[in-house]
Amino acid sequence: MEKFDEQLLILYASQTGNAMDAAERLGREAERRGCPSVSVLSIDEFQPIDLPNKEAVIFIVSTTGQGDNPDSMKGFWRFLLQKNLTREWLKGVHYAVFGLGDSSYQKYNFVAKKLDKRLSDLGATTIIERGLGDDQHSSGYEGALDPWMSALWIMLYQKNHKLLPSGPDFVTPDATFIDQPKLQIIYHDVEEGVPPLSSAKELKYLEMQLERARSMTPGKFSGNDRPDCFLRMCLLVSIVVIILDLLIQTKNHLLSRPDSGKDVSHFEFDAVSSSIDYEVGDVLEVLPGQSPAAVDAFIRRCGLNPESYITVQPRDAENHHFLNPPLSPVKLKSFIELTMDVASASPRRYFFEVMSFFATAEHEKERLQYFASPEGRDDLYQYNQKERRTVLEVLEDFPSVQMPFEWLVQLVPPLKTRAYSISSSHSAHPNQVHLTVSVVSWTTPYKRKRTGLCSAWLASLDPEQRVFIPAWFRKGSLPPPPPSLPLILIGPGTGCAPFHGFVEERALQSKTVSTAPIIFFFGCRSDKDDFLYRDFWLSHSQKNGVLSEDKGGGFYVAFSRDQPQKVYVQHKMREQSMKIWSLLTQGAAVYVAGSANKMPSDVFSVFEEIVSTESGVSREAALRWIRTLEKAGKYHVEAWS
């Protein structure tokens, strides 16, 4: 008896939404090519025990951090690693893997590579060689996805004609292919009133609106809709404000020299909604506020009523368990402010395709159709991603387009939290959390000035405004070390942020218990311009401080631009080769944080060199030694692009 179904199953594991977009595009293309049954699911919506019963499965998976699985894939991956699964468990199952990654990271597309190998080890048969999308490609990940998809249809047809009964080259004409949006908007007459003037009730109202709005589109957001807490920041060192009967005394301190080309600040926050708890090495996720002017302009451009109350639900709502209990209405303007990134993120390719169906000006329709076509891919990338055009800017460039709000809710990129390494010790600052934030700014190829949404928003907060900041705490890649563990820290630039917390905590611990030494390698451009936390590091490197040589530690700074030859943290590490090896032989743990470009791999190479030189073994043996260090949980990297 035939045990396989004839459905094409597409599973995606996405952290930022790219893999979901790629999977949904793959699903649409399969339907256009006459595939009788296509299912697109987030991998955490699929029961892995059912995998042996599938005929054909396409995996679209992203790699996060330093080769990590997306959150949605962690349970699925744990299941696949079970030792009781045999080498014939997936015999007869055909699969394909496409990965989304960034080749500037050391473990490029690591998740796709290990998934491909594991599926093969369990007996599954590959349909096509895995595809690897690269953010560094001139067309982004689509530069690899387009040719991979074209080859996929041919190979899929060869494996099973029933999946593409009209052949691999058949395509339904685009002009007839515009489906209903996946979502429906229900408008409500009931007015819930304006938020009360009391700060406590205003905060509760914001929490309610946020949880309601984000729960209405559950596929777009990972994690908990309800923040762990709300934070409050004041921009003056000495300002004191009473909110919710709590004393708020926080500050914003510029760390870099004004006009130095860098804009790095130290921000301090107090929790105003509940007590907070975190460990050094943890990460704070912040939901940024959007420009009120931009939100209002979007609402006007789309002809929406900001005061109406809405609920958003899937068109096939009866099949979705999260609608029980029924959703409560939320104000339309609040929904946009809290869930839709209208003035920062660039829309996806499908956004332009759907726009083309609603364009009434012929020249706009033709241009949008071209952008959505394979031939227009590179030009779209230049117009859209390279320029970082926002949804609002794109809509203003095509004034004849009037998209229904349902399509906008489905296709506008979600407003995502931004993650920052925490730079404080909770033991040293109870109920406070500190961040080290570089205000991101750049110029596009066509000379447009851009700034990072969250960093610029944090830096612009007015102390006179009552701004509550939704925040979530999560574990990062840097586990908190016990006081007895020697540490080798490498953190150039804002990579020093988590180690500010490490040193604060170790200094506090040293008052009551014996602590192991720390050596810290910091790097920046110039002593005068961007020596972040200068006084802090120097104070702890003197007078028996936790970074002092008296305690077996050390603090070493590389100023890359203060001399004719550039000096980086790698050079300072070589100068302290014997000291590093001595600490490693004492069981020290290595922590690396900072830019993901070349720094982590360069630092890794220097460790190889040091181990080889100081122990007298070959580079190959040194590499194996460091890999053992990694497996033992004593080599940690947290890097960001």
TrEMBL record:
Q: Which reaction does it catalyse?
A: 2 oxidized [2Fe-2S]-[protein] + NADPH = 2 reduced [2Fe-2S]-[protein] + NADP(+) + H(+)
Q: Where in the cell is it found?
A: Cytoplasm
GO CC entries? cytosol; nucleus
Q: Where does NADP(+) bind?
A: 494, 560-561, 566-570, 602
Residue ranges spanning the membrane: these are none
Q: What is its EC number?
A: 1.18.1.-
* Binding residue positions for FAD: 388, 418-421, 452-455, 640
Query: What's a single GO BP term from this record?
Result: iron-sulfur cluster assembly
Look up the domain of life of the source. Answer: Eukaryota
Q: Where is the Flavodoxin-like domain?
A: 8-153
FAD-binding FR-type domain residues = 241-481
The entry lists its GO molecular-function terms as: flavin adenine dinucleotide binding; FMN binding; NADP binding; NADPH-iron-sulfur [2Fe-2S] protein oxidoreductase activity; oxidoreductase activity, acting on NAD(P)H
Could you identify this protein by its name? NADPH-dependent diflavin oxidoreductase 1
What's its job?
NADPH-dependent reductase which is a central component of the cytosolic iron-sulfur (Fe-S) protein assembly (CIA) machinery. Transfers electrons from NADPH via its FAD and FMN prosthetic groups to the [2Fe-2S] cluster of the anamorsin/DRE2 homolog, another key component of the CIA machinery. In turn, this reduced cluster provides electrons for assembly of cytosolic iron-sulfur cluster proteins.
The UniProt entry's sequence similarity note says: Belongs to the NADPH-dependent diflavin oxidoreductase NDOR1 family.
| SUPFAM superfamilies noted in UniProt | Ferredoxin reductase-like, C-terminal NADP-linked domain (SSF52343), Flavoproteins (SSF52218), Riboflavin synthase domain-like (SSF63380)
Q: What class of enzyme is it?
A: oxidoreductase
Species this chain originates from = Sesamum radiatum
The cofactors required by this protein are: FAD; FMN
Q: Which residues bind FMN?
A: 14-19, 62-65, 100-109, 135
